[in-house]
Amino acid sequence: MFVRIGRRFVRVESRRRAGRFVQGLLSGLARVNCWTIAEQVGDRTPDGMQNLLSRATWDADGVRDDLREVVVEHLGVEDAMLVIDETGDLKKGVESVGVQRQYTGTAGRIENSQMSVFLVYSTPAGHTFIDRELYLPESWAEDQARRDRAGVPAQTLFTTKSRLALAMIARALEAGVRVGWVTGDEAYGKDAAGLRDPLEAREQAYVLAVACDHRVPGPGEESVRADERAAALPKRAWQKLSAGAGAKGRRYYLWARLRLHPAGKTGYHWILMRRNRRTGETAFYRCYSPRRVALADLARVAGRRWTIEETFQTGKELTGLDEHQVRTWTSWYRWTTLVMFAHAFLAIAAAQARSTPSAEDLIPLTRNEIRHLYAQLILQPARKIIDILAWSAWRRRHQHRSRQSHYQQRHQQPAPDHELQLEY
């Protein structure tokens, strides 16, 4: 993979250092920063790694473009999906670019944090990041002194998160990435002008979550809340469908949809509803497609949104996505791009491992296990390789037994009484 991006570095020293930087990200360090990475790969000081992120001459956006091509080449299918979401990194100071007190889902409350928006390429084979944008709040965009200290480019203005997401989606589509659907959470589904309308103008199908108070046409001429409309649906309107496979088996919910006819718009529009079979909690989605699609297809797309949550989790746990200790605009983009590269390596390796049959009592190699083996066998060769491989087999066999136990318990559990009444 790394050969593909070599042309993005002006000096061979920077290219080699970037390769060692990615190795450090994959080495399983307890804390990941320029100091620990430099020590891990044999540098005597962190100066070289810090220079790579701040002053060395190389094209981070070019690396991003090459990375996107590699990901699509290895994971691509005709009906791939683009998933958008944001994440927040908690910060103590006020000098890191873009940091301010703002709501972040990472903490579930308003905290001093730095927000960024990511685009994930998701297919049945695997999923990983292919683009990223740092969110610059208005308080930063209008403060020239802070901009100068953090190296924010002069052409960078305040842009909403929906517009950042749209820019990344457009960049992927214009690069020739073929996708069937775009999906995201409520923060993006609620923005018609910033995201939904531009996607429809491109005839790009989407399934975007919206809040329970999203307005939809009622029985009469007036609009009503989505949850009120859902409560009025007859039991026969709901269908039991899978939202995809989870850690404990297929994820079944009750689904329903209503056709919408927005004035002046073409194509097919729906409000999609997903009801938890046990709690009755209902989620809502605004959907569009230039052609008619089945309810099961919409449910499948809505169920795929979780892949970005898993990507965030593995990106932070395995490759240090949220552990950067950088303050400037350039350093943030370079750190994040190299983290994306390391994560893509694990995602592609895991996809290739799943395509190879393994023993019946072993689960396929996971990204976590691949990173462990890569660190132990390649980056830090062990004295007894057979012992490391034996431990890998033991972990995977144990996980296989645990999964089978979960499947059996799920299969043996009787369906709730209210579910039996809803099924036809």
Automatic annotation (TrEMBL):
It comes from the Bacteria. Residues 402-424 are annotated as: Disordered. Residues 13-223 form the Transposase IS701-like DDE domain. NCBIfam families: transpos_IS701 (NF033540). This is SRSO17 transposase. It comes from Amycolatopsis echigonensis.
